[in-house]
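As described in the Methods, two query proteins were run sequentially through the folding procedure within a single session, without resetting any intermediate state between them. The first query and its resulting structure tokens are shown here.
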Amino acid sequence: MGTETKNILGTPYRGTQMKITVKVSRFNPKVDEKPYYQEYSIEADPMDRVLDLLMYIKRFQDGTLAFRKSCAHGICGSDAMRINGRERLACKTLVKDVSVRDGDTIIVEPLRNLPVERDLMVRQSDFFEKYRSVKPFLISAQEPAEKERLQSPEQRAKFDDATKCILCAACYSACPVISGKNSDFIGPAAIVQAARFLDDNRDTGFEERLFALDDKNGVWPCENHFHCTLVCPRGIKVTKLINLTKQKIKKYRKERGEHIHDGSP
């Protein structure tokens, strides 16, 4: 009997073996003046994930390669990076999604708009500081009746889309406003987190979140490029939630005869 060919995971190949070049952005601020690319050659199955390729490189070719991963099932969001120029989760991106023929090159880079700590790892401090500014937790002026705050399926469905966010920062990286006009823009992910609670009938924290949302760096810098929606690995309608939040703020200010800080002169 012949020897069964196995892929980089040690399981039988499910497709045709492909010779892939993985071109990885490398940068160690302690020793490097600027980022550079390093290439690795791998034989991969089209059904292998890009994360599998990076793990193989780390284990068998170059132990110095740095990247984040955790659940490896598209839930934690820790392995978000740019693959062939687009923000993706490495654990959900198959070789066949970004490579079509033998000898192709897959380019892997860190997320944009966040400083690189090392190689594919970015410093997330600013991202989470903006996230915390919208008070991403339930705020209620009323004590729950009996044991809990009851909610109908219809009420729950109103904010279901926003609950899918895994804080991977793919939308933050893809945002052309942050990378171009306004690096202080609070960003898509933070607004999605705010929208999750603004649409929750149990929450009464709208006014407490206005300080961060109704600001020149809050919701108003968004220009509806839709890049955030296109790259979201959970399929969240990010731009729609941003616009709905703008509408809530405008309605609130209008009802009180107050100034609407919408970025206009």
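Immediately afterward, the second query was submitted; its sequence and tokens are:
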Amino acid sequence: MKILIDIGHPAHVHYFRNFIKIMEKNGHKFLIIAKNRSIVPYLLKYYNIPFILRKNYPKNIFGKFFQIIFTDLFVIKEVKKFKADLLLGFSGTHVSHAGVILNIPSIIFDDTDNANLAHASYKNFASSILTPTCFKKKFGKKQIYFNSFMELCYLHPKYYKPDSSILNLIGIKKDEKYVIIRFVSWNSNHDLGHKGISQKNKLKIVKEFSKYARVFISSEKNLPKELKKYEIKFPPEKIHDALAYSNLLFGESATMASECACLGVPSIYHDSIGRGYTEEEEKKYGLVFNFSETNKDQDLSIKKGIDILNDKNSTKNYKKKRNKILDDKIDVTAFMIWFVENYPKSKKLMNENPNYQLKFKEMSKSVKKRLYF
């Protein structure tokens, strides 16, 4: 089978990289189209995944409109040249459009409940839409729910084991606590109207947490000179290792909050709308703490972070909570492989019997041994 995947965000590289490698071993061929955004090309090269780049366009509203048209045309041209049998993407506007025009099935993944513009751009064109069970939007008969989180595509212990050499790389001593703080750019379509954590509180967070732990900052925006010395300086592919051994994540990234949940690390996440998956990771598993962007909630979240850092049993307790996630959730990558290799029969089967996915839930004893590190 020839499969084309459109990748527009660094997280998408992680969602699909294990799927691609396993499917290639099964004899399938891929063409990856990548947006020239952030570290997307870097990560694809690091994981040895060949790709072609699509162009970027201006970020204003007119630029975004023309970007859809011209990128659609580019994707259509590449689909025809590659002679693809199936099109995949996450929130996949362009592959869903190309699929309709060329009469090729498209499978779209999504977990971002509030991405209304993106949903409007693909929901009527996609052949199938796969979302976690905690996803709040309803897309009708074409929607397939899977009981897991997208971050388990790459952080499930079947595919990932943290590398402790990160501690030497960032200069962390034995038993020394550290916090990772994440600030985002708030430039995505679903971020309109959001401001995030105030500049005043960014300084306050670092000052307060520094009393209890080392502080590292990962930021999409340029940091003020007062915070520059805290900026993370290591290869981006090492971020999951850094998260895995940290004592707390604090910030504005839903993806990184969910990554920490899958790693058994507590996280504090700020967003006035939130996400279905971070809400489930709080209410059901107690691994994410969701706060709005109000000044009151920013103050409360700092106090919560200090409480976590002062808890001597924090690490052990949160690792146990992570085990509950792994007991409950399916192996998303294994499910994706089955669903794609057996499509469209797999779609029909999931509509008739959603519990078929439980086949991808069982973890081997050898994998369970990795859960504590």
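The chain has two domains: 2-146, 165-325. We note this only descriptively and draw no conclusion about the first query from it.
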